[in-house]
Amino acid sequence: xxxxxxxxxxxxxxxxxxxxxxxxxxxxxxxxxxxxxxxLVDVLAERVAAGGQVVLVTSGAISAGIGPLGLTTRPRDLAxxxxxxxxxxxxxxxxxxxxxxxxxxxxxQVLLTAEDTVRRWRYRNAQRSLDRLLxxxxxxxxxxxxxxxxxxxxxxxxxxxxxxxxxxVRADALVLLTDVDGLHDAPPSRPGARRIPYVADLAEVAxxxxxxxxxxxxxxxxxxxxxxxxxxxxxxxxxVLTSAVNARAALAGDDVGTFFAxxxxxxxxxxxxxxxxxxxxxxxxxxxxxxxxVLGGRASLLPAGVTRVEGxxxxxxxxxxxxxxxxxxxRGLVAFDAAxxxxxxxxxxxxxxxxxxxxxxxxxxxxxxxVLEGPTGAATASRR
Length: 384
Ligand SMILES: Nc1ncnc2c1ncn2[C@@H]1O[C@H](COP(=O)(O)OP(=O)(O)O)[C@@H](O)[C@H]1O
Ligand SMILES: N[C@@H](CCC(=O)OP(=O)(O)O)C(=O)O
Fold this sequence. Notes:
Elements: E1 15-20, H1 22-25, H2 34-49, E2 53-58, H3 61-64, H4 78-101, E3 107-112, H5 115-118, H6 120-135, E4 139-144, H7 158-168, E5 173-178, E6 198-199, H8 221-234, E7 239-243, H9 247-251, E8 258-260, H10 269-276, E9 282-286, H11 288-295, E10 306-311, E11 318-322, E12 328-333, H12 349-356, E13 370-372
Parallel strand pairs: 1-2, 1-5, 2-4, 3-4, 5-7, 6-8, 9-11
Antiparallel strand pairs: 7-8, 9-10, 11-12, 12-13
Helix pairs in contact: 2-4, 7-8, 7-10
Bound molecules: adenosine-5'-diphosphate and the ligand N[C@@H](CCC(=O)OP(=O)(O)O)C(=O)O.
The ligand N[C@@H](CCC(=O)OP(=O)(O)O)C(=O)O binds at residues 21-23, 59-63, 85, 143-144, 146, 157-158, 218-220.
């Protein structure tokens, strides 16, 4: 086994992304569980002291706002969720700052939105600032910017965000910490459910029953964790899924939780993020010729091959490319606003340039901004 296919890669992994879920950080009273938070920080600080770099992706903003707001359950409406997140996020970062300071370490808060991941300059910017933080010896503490995100354009779950961040920072491993010790062969509440220690390829566990509803505080249950694992391992980052109390053992490469071996090689960040980062803002319907050209993998999409446009999007937004039979063929970043496109459809770039001038002869989706839909719906399946 090479390093990325066995747990032996973990003790020496130089740069590790560790994600902790709300269920592991929040007590039954809806307040932060400081013991759990400090326990995790102790483990991460040890790693940094040993020369490693750690990026912490932490959930818990919304759940940590429940108690202070006088609520008893996780809010469901967007405005209250945002309010809870605003209260909870500042508490979270204050507590992490204190806990890491006890080890002589500084933290930097990084709040990302899905928009940061689909706009070229924004994700390059995120990459640069995270690299710089790490180079300065600071521990980035990452969460989704729940205070400003809306339902339409939201990661929604930090499992997927953590996988994208692990690719963004070129991590050597991703550790997902939750309230169960790994993937089980049935939901762990079921008597007799057993831990699966090693997964060489997610296809092996395709038949395992997993639920999307997790704990009362978490989001997405095991389903989003496996999506996260699919993104990470498919892009060359091995992953471990275990309970928060096993964080130290997991990083040491001990036999806890589930280890997921890499299945693919690192792809360009841009393509991975187009495929997985955000929901689409609209759809472009293609004629048969354009569908064939796009599926061939080397062509950009020209106005001549687009028959219809759905949705309201701006240039740079992610859209789905749909074939004549209605199947989604690819996702891509569109180069025009939705309102600009109708008069251009079906027209050759030569005509468009002659009639409308330079600027209107550009491609609708450049091939570098285009990711084909995988056989299992890989480009879009990660939306809940
Ligand atoms: N096959 C399975 N193996 C392990 N856990 C599972 C499985 N199916 C569902 N789960 C549930 O997933 C939950 C973890 O998800 P979640 O509550 O979203 O956690 P977090 O807050 O850590 O993100 C566990 O509490 C467990 O009940
Ligand atoms: N950004 C949200 C996290 C949502 C989420 O994914 O929660 P979890 O399933 O506990 O990882 C928060 O901080 O509350």
